[in-house]
Design brief:
Layout lengths: L1 H6 L7 H13 L3 H13 L4 H21 L5 H25 L6 E6 L7 H12 L3 E4 L6 H11 L3 E5 L8 H11 L7 E5 L5 H7 L3 E2 L3 H21 L1
Parallel strand pairs: 1-2, 1-3, 3-4, 4-5
Length: 234
């Protein structure tokens, strides 16, 4: 298989073969090839938005499905997401210039007292791969950090992660504070992490509990669509 790839010259592939090849290269976590292919498509006159959606987002969608179905595991998904990030590095400034549509903006971070971030990083990368803008607050976030970022960034979604049973309850502190300040309904709140489950998500008043990164992306898309429909109807 490797020998075939060595013979492959990306710039010689027509668009209809280069894009599926990008999906394969993303799947295999080949960052250099993704950067090269993004540049080739730009030279060929593709818009940054088309490259993002047809090559990178579509490639990550395939990765997400296989991750959900247990064919790919966290290390492979992180490699794929990393390759996508390399491509995004080229496209981001161009997308800003062209004012390309974004699906929505998400503030994400691990809650106070918790320093685990692999799951959160995975969600952030997969969400970015699906076309969301991500503001990653990192680990150990008190309620003030979340609220400040949501307001400052004019975000649509708050994502909170916890890996310890002892830090899980802090999610409720954040949501209760949002209610007290009268801003809870302005944001979609998604929670995740190994010790959580559906019942916990409901009990603390989150909009959704997401089992893994692939579920988080699908859920976010549905909730954003619903939010837009409601505001359009209103």
């Amino acid at each position: 298989m490797a020998d075939d790839d060595d013979d492959l010259i990306l710039s010689e592939l027509p668009d209809e073969e280069l894009v599926p090849q990008m999906h394969d290269d993303l799947y295999d976590g080949l960052a250099d090839e993704i950067v090269e292919a993004v540049n080739i498509l730009l030279e060929r006159g593709w818009t940054p938005y088309d490259i993002l959606t047809k090559a990178l987002v579509e490639g990550m969608r395939i990765v997400g499905i296989d991750f959900r179905d247990g064919i790919l595991f966290v290390p492979e998904v992180l490699l794929a997401a990393n390759a996508m990030k390399s491509g995004m590095g080229i496209l981001k400034p161009l997308l800003v210039e062209t004012g390309a549509p974004r699906l929505g903006k998400m503030v994400i971070g691990t809650v106070k007292g918790d320093i685990h971030d692999i799951g959160k990083n995975l969600v952030a990368m997969m969400m970015e791969g699906a076309g969301f803008e991500i503001v990653d607050l990192g680990i150990n976030n008190p309620v003030e950090d979340y609220l400040e970022a949501l307001e400052k960034e004019q975000a649509d979604i708050l994502g909170m992660s916890a890996l310890l049973t002892t830090t899980m309850p802090y999610m409720k502190v954040v949501i209760d504070t949002m209610k007290e300040k009268g801003v809870r309904d302005e944001y979609i709140v998604m929670v995740g992490g190994a010790p959580l489950n559906e019942e916990f998500g409901k009990a603390i008043g989150a909009d959704a509990y997401c089992r893994d990164a692939a579920v988080a992306v699908e859920t976010a898309k549905q909730l954003i669509a619903r939010k837009h429909n409601v505001s359009a109807a209103g």
